[in-house]
Write a structure and sequence with these properties.
By secondary structure, this protein is of the alpha+beta class. The chain contains 3 helices and 3 strands; from the N terminus they run αααβββ. Helix 1 packs antiparallel against helix 3. The chain starts with 14 loop residues before the first helix and ends in a 9-residue tail after the last strand.
């Protein structure tokens, strides 16, 4: 029996397979890194909402007890919102304007797959505001 001669295509890979493999890896990278960014956005928004809510619960107690008005204690509201941000491990800023607590947050994220393509760490932001309401305002 004579030995079989190797085919000229044996051990080679087609250009189509290379392109498909790169495309598939890019698609997986977009899905995974897109999910990481969406989670970072959700975290930034949620932290902003909850910090604003926590700040808006810091009322001017004497006025609220007397029933005069539902008013925020500005210093207490800022402290409450900042305390929530620290506990959540999120960077952000707090502003109290009248009876409204406004919170802006920043969350960093690092892509996993797209880092190989030169996409570096990025920051997403979230913003929320909250104000206290009296019982008469609730439908």
């Amino acid at each position: 029996m004579t030995p079989r001669r190797p085919s000229p295509d044996e051990g080679s890979i087609s250009l189509f397979m290379v392109v498909m493999a790169v495309t598939l890896l890019a698609a997986v990278g977009l899905v995974v890194d897109g999910g990481i960014k969406v989670r970072a956005l959700q975290r930034a928004d949620e932290a902003a909402r909850e910090a604003a809510r926590a700040g808006s619960q810091m009322l001017d107690v004497p006025a609220a007890v007397r029933g005069d008005a539902v008013a925020i204690d500005p210093a207490g509201a800022a402290r409450g919102a900042r305390s929530y941000l620290v506990a959540a491990g999120v960077e952000g800023s707090v502003r109290v304007s009248g009876n409204v607590v406004i919170v802006s947050t920043r969350v960093d994220f690092t892509p996993v797959f797209l880092a190989f393509a030169g996409v570096g760490p990025s920051t997403v932001t979230g913003t929320a505001s909250a104000r206290p309401v009296s019982a008469e305002e609730v439908p």
